[in-house]
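Chain A, query sequence.
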Amino acid sequence: MEKPSVEPFRKQIVVVDPATGKLHSAEPLTFAEMGVKERQHIEEWIKHNTGILGSKLLLITSEYDKFDKSDVKLDLLALAQDGKLFVVELKRDAKHTLADLQAIRYAAYCSTMTFEQAVKLRAAFAKTDQDSARQEIRDFVGDDDFSKIEREPGIILAAGGFDEKLTSCALWLHKFGLDIRCVEVTPYRLEEGKIILVPRVIIPLPEAGDYMVRAEEKEIDEIALSKTKGLQREFWTAFIKYCSGRSAVPGLCASGPPASGCYTAGFSLPHHVLLQLIATAKPAGLRCQLVIRSPDSMLVYERVERHKQEIDAILGARLKWLAPPSEGLTGRVFQSRAGDIEARDKWDEYFAWLLERAEAFYKAFLPTLREVDRKVGAVRPA
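Chain A, predicted structure.
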């Protein structure tokens, strides 16, 4: 018996007119079908909103062609909030192209770029002076002392479509530690002639991305913390004992001592937000952080970030704010200080700082998170 033919499912956007109740379906087209150009249109749109690339980025320059002994020209160069440079390669359609190889070449050229070179490029791009550009970069990164750029730039490939050859190469490179991302941007045309752009991060996959974040955290715990897990457990056991009778936040020390550098408070803040304390030996340091990890993490983070100045003022410190790379992945807000748990004579000092910061974070963020939870809950689809 012949199987009935089934028309392949096509992605579409359904536009609703609340006044009339009428629905209109907008089906995806290609940039070529719309007459959209890479530099004239796509690049300009991203300059106005880097969120199209799936991350918060500060553009450093565009159409850069000043590489030594080379006539190549990269589309965009951007800086992420963690201080890492990203080479951005744009294509109307990346199928049957060498976009991945082009971007790798550009990343190699940019690997020697210094902070001051980036400052000069940003100043020229933003049409401002170098002092203003330097402060703008440091404000974006959230570190007044930021002055060193990582020597391993990341890569963002943004296009209307990708083929299996390119995505297979990107996945292979990602496996070996290269921060490479593929963002598929699908255009839809509305009846009135307007265009809707729907970006989707396809590499790393959102589901795999969160797994990789957890795997990386585990690896950092295993490599960078104490020489033995016993020292970590001893530190946190002593910390819990120290907090007994001192902590004003119920449940703060309700969790058992972990055999790692990360201690999660024994309660969950609104909207699945966690409060964590970190103490490491290699590299040495202490940290108090808020971890936003939920299906709508970007929405929650953006709502909390609106209170950034108010929260920083309450805590009397300039916190580090790291947005989720894409929806469903993890965002963090934290404060760090020097400290080495192998220095046992300083444990009481460390305990006092961790406890004070944990209680301060709890009091500063709780009202905002409750408000955000109500608002996000009101707009979340049923």
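Residues 11 and 200 are 13 Å apart (CA to CA). The radius of gyration is 24 Å.
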